[in-house]
Write a structure and sequence with these properties.
Low-confidence stretches: none
Mean pLDDT: 96
Shape: elongated
Number of strands: 17
Largest sheet: 10 strands, mixed
Radius of gyration: 26 Å
Structural class: alpha/beta
Number of helices: 21
């Protein structure tokens, strides 16, 4: 279930299921029953279901009815007029024989658990008035909250909080998750998310053709480079990481070690001569070659066996870095651009984007954090000012011609063709100096083994999160490449290729 459906796509899934012969009220009954089952697991004393004016409220009416049939004391309060409910929600309300109380913040008094069935995923405007007051009251009740579909106030497509949002203890959604369950801040409001089967056949995905995915091994496992018994290091690619000057070598060395751990057969640091001794003394399995300037880098990369290059970590901002980047992009190899390699083009992005697009299908991955993204993609970012994170990354990917990895706790990877992955496994202690350099190295290590760019960037991001969890609180960037050994062992066992 890695597909993430926008609210429009989920509405289409409902329509397709109904057109295929499943009555809408049956889908609503199944949804309400799934929520009731989640409530039952809490064994609450008394339940207050807060229903809204749409189908989410209809799910709430079903949940209230089933809980009452199971013997739980249930109260139902409704935001809006019962007579104005339509379709399946109206039918669900008629099947509820208990009283319907008006939605007032004071109506939550005495509840030991609240079911949030106010708005669900479809909210697309900031809250105000009674709806806002009810969300504030739910958050102030200090009791467990089970959200129906998505905590009210969270936009299902973008994950944005629409002025205010319910802080749920858990969320029950249906058929597939939505981007709002994974993107921040939505994810922080959901608690654990259960995906309930309500009778929508999985075949509807063929008609919907979703393009947004939760980042997980099933997204990229069939492209993952698993070492073979007959292989050797020269078949696993040779990555080059361009180092900064003598006082800025650490970032490149972190990237180089990440590339080696990720599986590149060989890794070379292209080092300015002034930093040669520092880089050589600090490197064992990573080789070091003297390279000063774009001309010498072009000369080194004339060797076709050097099939991947990383630029930016500790590289310095300015024309010299721009020249190095354009030299790397001119050849027949995969290129990863991070940090200073991106900022160096902030005022003149057009030559960078033109060089990337001139490469055609050759893999290029850009790895900005939000600050670098805003500097490099200023016009694209402004054009999508109110867009979701994945929409901004998509715009940037089309504008640049590259796979764009927009970093954060909800890292998004977007390709020009429209596919997007969203990652949710990054622990907070990954936010430390050098962590992004290791990620650039992981991407390069996978690209060196001929993994496609979108899959390599997505896999590397997932591996990065897993290594962060493996290393644990207090980690520093140097811990991440070593933690990859354990993560790989688990991954290969899950893929059935080891031991």
């Amino acid at each position: 279930m890695i597909e993430l459906l926008t609210t429009a796509e989920m509405a289409k899934a409902d329509r397709l299921a109904i057109a295929g012969g499943t009555p809408g009220i049956r889908l609503m009954d199944n949804a309400g029953r799934a929520v009731a089952d989640a409530v039952t697991r809490h064994s609450p004393g008394s339940v207050c279901v807060v229903a809204g004016p749409g189908n989410n409220g209809g799910d709430g009416f079903v949940c209230a009815r089933i809980l009452s049939e199971r013997g739980y004391p249930v109260r139902l309060i409704l935001l809006g007029d019962r007579d104005k409910l339509k379709g399946d929600a109206a039918e669900a309300s008629q099947r509820w024989s208990g009283p319907v109380e008006p939605a007032t913040p004071g109506g939550l008094a005495g509840a030991e658990l609240i079911v949030d069935a106010l708005f669900g995923a479809g909210l697309d405007r900031p809250l105000s008035g009674p709806g806002l007051a009810m969300i504030q009251a739910i958050n102030g009740a200090n009791v467990p909250v089970v959200a129906v579909d998505l905590p009210s106030g969270i936009n299902g497509t973008s994950g944005a909080a629409m002025g205010a949002a319910v802080r749920a203890s858990e969320t029950v959604t249906f058929f597939r998750r939505k981007p709002g369950h994974v993107l921040l801040p939505g994810r922080l409001h959901c608690g654990p998310v259960e995906v309930a089967d309500i009778g929508i056949p999985s075949g509807v995905l063929r008609d919907i053709a979703p393009r947004i995915f939760a980042n997980a091994p099933s997204l990229w496992a069939d492209q993952f480079p698993v070492p073979q018994p007959g292989g050797h290091k020269y078949r696993r690619g040779h990555a080059v990481v361009v180092s900064g000057d003598q006082s800025h070598t650490g970032a490149a060395r972190l990237a180089a070690r990440g590339a080696l751990r990720a599986g590149a057969g060989l890794v070379t640091l292209a080092s300015p001569r002034e930093a040669l001794a520092v880089n050589a003394a600090a490197s064992l399995a990573v080789m070091v070659r003297p390279v000063d300037g774009a001309a010498e880098l072009s000369g080194l990369l004339a060797d076709a066996r050097l099939n991947t290059v990383v630029l930016g970590p500790g590289g310095g901002v300015g024309s010299a870095t721009r020249d190095l980047v354009l030299a790397a992009l001119a050849g027949n190899r995969a290129v990863v651009l991070d940090a200073d390699a991106l900022t160096s083009f902030a005022d003149v992005p057009e030559p960078l984007f033109a060089a990337i697009k001139a490469r055609g299908p050759l893999p290029t991955v850009l790895t900005p954090h939000e600050g670098e993204f805003a500097r490099l993609f200023n016009s694209a970012a402004q054009a999508a000012d109110n867009a979701s994170k994945y929409e901004r990354a998509r715009v940037a990917s089309v504008a640049s011609g590259a796979v764009v990895l927009l970093k954060g706790s909800d890292t998004v990877v977007a390709e020009p063709g429209g596919r997007v992955s969203i990652t949710d496994n990054a622990p907070p202690w990954l936010a430390t100096a050098g962590s992004g350099d290791v990620l650039a190295g992981f991407i390069a290590g996978l690209l060196a083994q001929s993994m496609p760019a979108f899959e390599a960037a997505s896999a590397a991001t997932w591996l990065h999160g897993e290594t962060g969890s493996e290393a644990g609180p207090g980690l520093i960037a140097e811990d991440l490449p070593d933690a990859l050994r354990t993560v790989y062992r688990r991954l290969f066992v899950d893929l059935g290729v080891w031991p």
